[in-house]
Amino acid sequence: MDFEYVECPRDAMQGIKEFIPTDKKITYLKALLDTGFDVIDCGSFVSPTAVPQMADTAQLLNAFLNYKHKSKLLVIVANLRGAIRACAYSNVTYLGYPFSISETFQKRNTNTTRENAFIELSKIQKVATVTNREVVAYMSMGFGNPYGENYSIDLVSEWAEKISRLGINTISIADTTSQASPELINSVFCRLIKELPQIKFGAHFHAPMENWKEKLDAAINAGCMRFDGAILGFGGCPFAKNEMVGNIPTELVLEHLKLKYQFNRIKVGTELMNLARNTYT
Questions:
Q1: What is the DSSP letter of 52?
Q2: Which of 14, 23, 58, 60 counts the most CB atoms within 10 A of its CB?
Q3: Which residues lie below 8 Å from residue 191, measured CB to CB, with a gap of 6+?
Q4: Full-prediction pTM beyond 0.90?
Q5: Exposed, middle or buried by CB within 10 Å (0-12, 13-18, 19+), for 238?
Q6: Is residue 42 within a helix (H) or strand (E), and if so which, with residue range?
Q7: What is the CATH number of the domain that holds 55?
Q8: 240: pLDDT strictly greater than 60
Q9: How distant is the alpha carbon of residue 104 from its chain centre?
């Protein structure tokens, strides 16, 4: 089986309070590019006040304008202004937009309502089309939320269908605070993939070490073939809860995909893991 794998240093770094020097980030990103990940979520054009760690995203992109690699670069944008800034860089392929199933989280994450976020997403999609970029819609809180708000698979399906009508072809369902059970993950992806077969659905899981594998297998069994992760399992959204839950650990995920699904196109060795540890800590 061949999967699409998205390495997410941006997600791994964004919640780290001490600013990681730009040259250190560049060294690490270069190593990730050399590894050959399909997509690298490398930064974000959001308010530096909200996410200080990402204030140097433009410098990171500039550093790799003429660097030869096969990975596609993704940056997160929270509004139209961020999308316009991102599209000024020829090496950006994907604009990732965080759209939340939860009204509370949408407000906490992008300081707007869910309806206004959808309007903003439609504007971003138009800019992406004109500039030959692609939008990845991240559906945050896609498996429930910690705020006591109503959640159902019907709600996820409704919003996924609306997003697809904008012309967006990739939707990644995010388990933002590790709410999801394997059973729910399987049900969500089975439903969405059946209803919207033209959409490439991905999974952005946050999970503790004891159950990431079960979540991964549940999504694969439903037909999901695109996954996000971060080396050593660093990361989490600083706007979700007081305690962040890390990403699924890339090195373990790739080993699992190799052993169970014969996927061995991407390899993470000890040297890269040590570099990640040195970068993040």
A1: G
A2: 14
A3: 153, 156, 157
A4: yes
A5: middle
A6: strand 39-45
A7: 3.20.20.70
A8: no
A9: 20
CA distance 225 to 94: 18
- The pair of three-digit structure tokens given for residue 143, joined into one six-digit string: 């498996």
> What's the domain count of the chain?
1
* H or E segment and range at residue 194: helix 182-195
Per the DSSP assignment, residues forming a β-bridge with 40 are: 7, 73
Give the residue among 44, 58, 38 at the shortest CA–CA distance from 15.
Answer: 44
How far apart CA 20 and CA 60 sit, in angstroms, is 12
pLDDT, average across residues 189-198: 98
Q: Which domain holds residue 30?
A: 4-280
Give the model confidence (pLDDT) of 61-114 as tens digits.
Answer: 999 999 999 999 999 999 999 999 999 999 999 999 999 999 999 999 999 999
Burial 107-120 (b: 16+ CB within 10 A, else e): bbbbebebeebbeb
The answer to whether the beta carbons of residues 97 and 135 sit under 8 Å apart is yes
